[in-house]
Amino acid sequence: MGSLKQILKTVTPGFVRRYLRKLHRDYKFSQAMKKFVSDPQSVIATQRTVISDLIYGWGNEDWSALDEYLLGCLDQAWVCEGAVLECGSGLTTLILGVILQTKGQHLWSLEHNPVWGDRVKKNLKRFGIDSVQLCIAPLKDYGAFSWYDPPLNAMPEKFDLVVCDGPPSDTPGGRYGLLPVMKTKLQPGTTILLDDAAREQERAIATRWTNELGAASEVLGIKKPYLRISIPIGVV
Going by fewer Cβ within 10 Å, which terminus of the chain is more open, N or C? Predict the structure, then answer.
């Protein structure tokens, strides 16, 4: 079997292999999303392969959150009682949207890349996910840092959960802008999940947040660590 695969790889043009790989990804993603939409709680509890298929099918393994972070976000989404804010859209937007739709809650997702945002928007429509308010706009220069330009007046008064996987690390100030821009929308008891805790920049930002908020933080995950920051009662 191994020899046959090697022969086919040798004689099949590269563009054909890429096309077939894309078809396979699309098929795996579609099947995994259908399973997730039909019973998200069961998938989270017992069907880890579905999450792996979603990551593979989405086709952005280098950037997509690995299963530890995704599952951490999903677990937190199940227990949160209010609106959820997402910084940087992607696969997480879709699966958080499914959970919040099941619970009658809403996700506000901020995205600066219109091409990427359009892909997410099309998949939200494809799978009938209408619990997501996707806000696509260029990053704004705030002077000391750049960050998203959220429609603050249209947003909920408070967010119970923040899933932070953007903007990109080369943005001036990185992801720090969440706190100064969104501080009035964060509440005592809000949980912030910050991806990429293995990066020094993210750890430094988390330290600034915790110092400014008087909050507690912990590192979770092994393969791709992330930070959970909890805003204590009576702080914001």
Answer: N
